[in-house]
Structures are given as C-alpha cells and as structure tokens.
Amino acid sequence: MKRIISCMLVVMMLIMAASAFAESDGIGRFGKSNALTKFIKATDAKTQDIALQVESGDASADLVIRADGDKLHFVTRANGVEDGHVQFDPNGVYVSADGSVTLLRYATVSTVLSDISKEVDAMLEEAVKNLPEEKEPTQEEIAKAEKALQKAVNELAILASAAEAQEQADAATLSAAAVSFANKFKPEYILDVKEEGGRVQIDLRSEAYASALADAMDELMMNPALAELVDRQAALTGEKGFAAYQKQWAANREATLAAIRTMQSTDVIDENGHWVSHFQIGEEQSAIKILVCDTDSWIDPENGYADITATLGFKGEAPFLVYQLAVDQYAYHEKLSSGDSYTDVQMSFADGKISSGKVVTEIEGQEWMRAEVGEDYFYMKGQNGGISTSVRETWTGKTRYELVAESADGKEATVTVDFYEYGDSLVCELYTSESDQSATFKISRIDKLDIPDLNASEKIDEITAEKIEGELTNLLKSLTVTVK
Q1: What is the pLDDT of residues 354-400, one digit of tens each?
Q2: Which residues contact 421 (CB under 8 A, 6 or more apart)?
Q3: Could you tell me the pTM of the whole model?
Q4: How far apart are CA 265 and CA 192, in angstroms?
Q5: CA 129, 132, 138, 143 torsion: positive or negative?
Q6: How far apart, in whole angstroms, are the C-alpha atoms of residue 447 and residue 445?
Q7: Distance from the first to the final alpha carbon of the chain
Q8: Closest to 464 in 3D by CA, of 29, 226, 115
Q9: Rounded to whole angstroms, how far apart are CA atoms 360 and 357?
Q10: At what angle do helices 242-261 and 224-237 cross, to 10 degrees?
C-alpha cells in the first residue's frame, strides 16, 4: 500500500512535466501542446500498459494502471515483481496479496452503515430505559408550567418587538443626523470653481469650510436624540458617554477651526488629462511648520496611461515622502521613497502577461531585499540569504529546472529537476547537491501485463457485514461501558 501511495504521488510530479515537454518557441515559453496527453493517446492499449515508475539507486517500484471495460486495475510491483493488485468493478473492491483475494462489496458498506445506525439507536433507547424513574407531574403542575411558559413566550415577543422598534428609531436618528451634517457642506458654499479654455480650477474657501464645520458640529452636539442613543450604547459597551464628546469638542473647537482656516487647497484640471493639486495647512507666522501635499498627474483613460507623482512634506523643505506611479499597457512602475529609503516595483507586460518584474527595497541606503522575475527565472535576495530558480533547455534537449538557495555565510544548496522523453517514457529526474544519487519518476509504456480478473478467482475471502458489525459492535459496547 505504501508503494501504491508513493506511485500516486508521481502523478503530481509528472503533471508538471506536461508543460516542460510542450513545444516551445524559445526558452521559458511552454504550453503550446501537452506532451502527457499526446503520450497517452499514442499508447496502443491492445499491446501496452501505462506504468508510473519510481527509481532510486538500484531499487524500483511501479504502479500499472489499466482500464478494462467496467473494471479498473492497479497493480504494484517492486523491482519488476508483482506484490499487490487492487481491482474496482461494479460489485466492489478486490484486493489480491500473498496469493489470496479479498472482496468488499459496496452493498456491504451500505448495509453496515444502516445496521450500525440502528444499533446505536437501540443502545440509546436501552440507556434511557435504565435511567431512574421520577415521579410523574400532576395535571395541575403541568397546567402551571404551561402557563408560565406561555407568559415567558409573550414577554420574549414583547421584548423582541420593542428591540426592533428601537433599532428602527436609532437608524432614523443616525440618518437624520448624518443628512443634517452633510447639508452644511454644500459645494457651492465651500468651493470656488472657475472654468476657462478647457481648464477647471477648484479652490477651497477655508473660512466658509470652517464655518460649515462649526455649524455642523455645534448642531450635532446639541442633538438630544443622538445623545440618548450614544449614552445607551455607552452603558452597554463601557465607552464614553455623550457628555464626554461634548466636552472634548468644546475644548478643541476654536483650535480646530483656527487650523482649518489656514488650509489652502487648489486643484487644476486640464482637458488634456493634466491634473495638479496643492494642499497645505498651517499658519505662515506660526512656529509650527506648514504641512504641504502636492500631486502632479497625467491621466489618459482612452489609452490606458497614467503618470502620478505625490509628495508630502513641510513647506520650504525637501519632501519626506514621495509616491510615484506610472502605468500603461506595456509596463507598471511604482515607487515609495522617504529620504535614503525606498521600495521600487517594476513590471513589464507582453500579451497580457507579466514578462519581467523587479522589486527592490533599500533602508537608509542599504539594500534589504531584491526580487527579480522573468519568463525563465526567479531570483530573490534578502539580509539572511537568497534563492534563485531558472529553466532552460540543455544541449542534450532536456528541460532543466534549477533551484539554488544561498545562506548568509555563502553556503549553497541546489535542487535540479530534468524533464525529458527517453524511449517509451516521459522522465522526471530529481537530484540535489547533497547526494550523489538521483530519484527518477517516469510514465512509461510497457508490454501488456497478464493481469487476471480477480472476481473470477477460485477462492475469494469476502468481508461480510457480519464480520464488520461484529468488530464495530464490540467497539461501541466498550465505549458505552467507558461512558457509564
């Protein structure tokens, strides 16, 4: 059985080989035709069988698979000698080992499951019968219990109805407060819009914006329905009550409004897709530095092009944060930098797929991580080592995948996988730098084996429902005793 499982694992390895054996128009471009499908279709089912084979050193094991009408055979062999045979047909599963054949019918499994279910029910009924009897309640006690139950149900219904009504009332309170708050910020009151020659300029009226915020917050802090809602929720969650929010707003009101009055915000949008945005907050004569955010963008949605640069910093100083994005149908570039630290992402596209890419991260001028990927390689390096993979066609025609891992002290370990076709086999050969031996996995065409029909065997030892039920019943009884 272990050999069967091992051979089945080969399927996963050989599925990978399908793309490796595909015809290519250059290194790294696989997948135009499936070699595995072609190999199986080219097999003569009358004279050949398909075998999944594993070889390591002088030892070999294989799993021969044959579909014969309504029968499916799995035959395992060790060093060419049969040591197991499993057959599936409409009746059940046959297993041949050491000269004997064992049968497990599908109907037997169904019968066992049904009988065990009945057995469990019977055991539970018996356990209930053995429970100590208690005095039966009188009709008066039953009537009193029913009355109490009905009262509890009615009270729960009233509570549920009240809770639903309260939820609707709370939703209405929040909705009304939100609408009233938003109405204070009508664009025509707080924005100055100018349009000329295909250019639109939008400026923020900071004084009007501060006044709108003051009106909106003052009204919000004087809303009794909202105060009741917040206090009720605070009692349940232990959070701050409405009075605390009122006190916080009163304490910070003037400072907040004063800061908003210093805001300057301008957006200029040209019809050619050029968009420039400037925002700053802070007083010119204040000891606190003025915070500035600038954005310069070129956007062309028709051709799928965008080029955006955004900076954040203090006025009169070099920005401490810079974000850059450039994207079109052929490439993507994104970079976030701060001083001597940055992360840079670059990708190129071909036929709607990534053809190459690179990610580099530097912190204070020192490279911390680099990753590069192409159609036939992948490479990544960090502070504690690196890994790289590549795929290429060797001079002898093999498709070779290599994985190299390197530690921080320079030690390397290599895993190499070769895919190739040899004779009547598709071969996957795996070897490492740590061993002189290789492991070989194959899908091979072999001469047709003499595989017997197990349901025609002279002696078949059938696993009956009685045998299974006997074992399971003993198990259930032992469990029942343990529970008691």
Answers
A1: 899 999 999 998 999 999 999 888 999 988 899 999 998 889 888 89
A2: 21, 35, 39, 427
A3: 0.62
A4: 10
A5: negative
A6: 7
A7: 39
A8: 115
A9: 10
A10: 120
